[in-house]
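Dear colleagues,

As part of the handover before I leave the project, I'm documenting each prediction I ran so the next person doesn't have to rerun anything. This entry is a single chain, and its sequence is reproduced below.
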Amino acid sequence: MAPYSLTWNGNVVTGNIIRDLGVGIYSASLMDANGCPRSASIYVPNLNLGRMNILTPDTIVSIGDEVLLRAGDAPDYIWSPITGGNIACPVCQETPARPLVPTQYIVRTLTGANCIAADTVRVMIDYSSMLSMPNAFTPNNDGMNDYFRPKSKAVMAFSMQIYNRSGNLVFATNDHRKGWDGSFNGEPSPMGTYVYIIRFGFWQADGKIEMQDKKGTFDLIR
């Protein structure tokens, strides 16, 4: 029941507004006209945050490749554009994205506590594409040319099968970054000529995939 008396950190307060508080924990006590007390501990955080920043610089990526978006100096985050920017986690501090067109990404803080509560980064797209297969490799664990795999750019879909001279399948993969190490069933395959059959697709500027087939031979050299 009014009137009330307020004590803040042991000091009697007149009025209902307390100004110029620093970071810390404060004790507050309230007593009404009937002498009924209430008390609480109140934590005042530091909301004087600087500007939020995107840590990823403006960059260019091959179409279909991911770019890692990283931000900092904010209590929370939301990225946009979500759909057109193909952002994996719109509310994460760090998230991969796969833009198909030049895109300006914006990150904002949900609470708006920063003095500057948003930042932007621009990702440009390289639309060129290529895939070439080597004609030999040397799987001798010297760190050079140890795997048979394509050199590629802007490849989205991929499958490869490798056969020996007897027509037996010795290796298969659906990842153009994963190559054959020259083994079969855990044993080194013999030197000789092998056949590869691949099917692959490039990202196009309209976001569609153009599929192609390729077949050839290569030498395993030890």
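DSSP finds no helices and 20 strands in the chain. The two ends are 93 Å apart (CA to CA).

All the best with the project,
I.
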